[in-house]
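Sat 14:20. Reprocessing the chain from the morning session after the first attempt stalled halfway. Input below, unchanged.
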Amino acid sequence: MSERFSSDFFAGNREKLRQLFTGTAPIVVTANGLLQRGGDSSFPFQQDASFWYLTGINEPDISLVLDKGKEYLIVPGRQDARVAFDGAIDDEVLTRISGIQTILDDKEGWRQLSTRLKRAKHVATLSAAPAYIEDHGLYTNPARAQLITRMKSYNQEVEVLDLSQHLARLRCIKQSVELEAIQEAIDITLATIKEITKPTKLAKYAHEYEIEADVSRGFRSRGARGHAFDPIVASGIRACTLHNVANNGQLAADELLVLDIGAEVDQYAADITRTVSLGTPTKRQQAVYDAVLEVQEFAKTLLFPGALIKENEQQVEHFMGEKLRELGLIKTIDREEVRKFYPHATSHFLGLNVHDVGDYSRPLEPGMVLTVEPGIYIPDEAIGVRIEDDVLITDDGFVSLSDALPRQLS
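Finished this time. Tokens:
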């Protein structure tokens, strides 16, 4: 972990959570667990963002307990074989990172916690997602569900209180140290895009995966841990699939290329998209691009404290409808018609996750970081255009965190 985040940051976040959660119930939050990739190998570990926000710890299977002014970590032991492959967990390191002085092994930690749970009416934790999220086709990390099951095994009557909105409220207002990490991630992303999209360099690529490889190299060489999400390098009709991460297509000079990428620095994400021409853009390609740019500029005028994202999205949708009508893609501005060519939202929160937690019904406040990313996708014409920047809400409006990267098609 970078020295940017001291134990004071995580201790401060725990104290803010205590103050926001006014109840007397114990608070228990779990780290994520490892997920099997195949056989005895796992996918690269990705920590639960809220657990990291409270502890700074990047190890699996650990539990954090906050109870009546006390705090401790429950750390399961590791068998010798696993220690040989994955290493041992050093309690002193956990304390140095998190500022938590009491580290208990699994047996003693659960003895203390179970004693408390047996006489408690409530316990506060983060709710578990369904095992499978059908809309996204995702199996979820089972750690939260297992924690709740284990706590209920000591007291079936204990009521579980969900901390999700409390953590979302805290995490969506970024502290200065978080903004520093986000800005560094953005700067690395911008520098990498600038390097890759130089006309002389862009002309040398033959396949999307060659660009992906240079994105990875650019991120790591500039100090990022890697990608905040799977990079999207999509040209031609492939750019009309929003999350096309195969990146295996052949490049053609008459096509547009969508680069949707973001570096990760100290757990924090950037999310930047640029669309560039692989040759000389046609008038039609330029017209579609200009329409998306106009929509983005309009969307930015709606960003100020007190504005509601949901209302902003409705206004952007209507403005996008006007642009689509001008392009001859629709005849009437109707939601169903607009969404044929613009199927996603304009903004999402950005932070520890690329699609970070936040309450979309809550008015915008200074300290929130959002993306602004309209797009138009025309499969019949093999044209996909998306332009995305990251912005910070301020006292009197917003500042763009990614203005250093030009927005032009060629």
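Residues 176-196 form the longest helix (21 residues).
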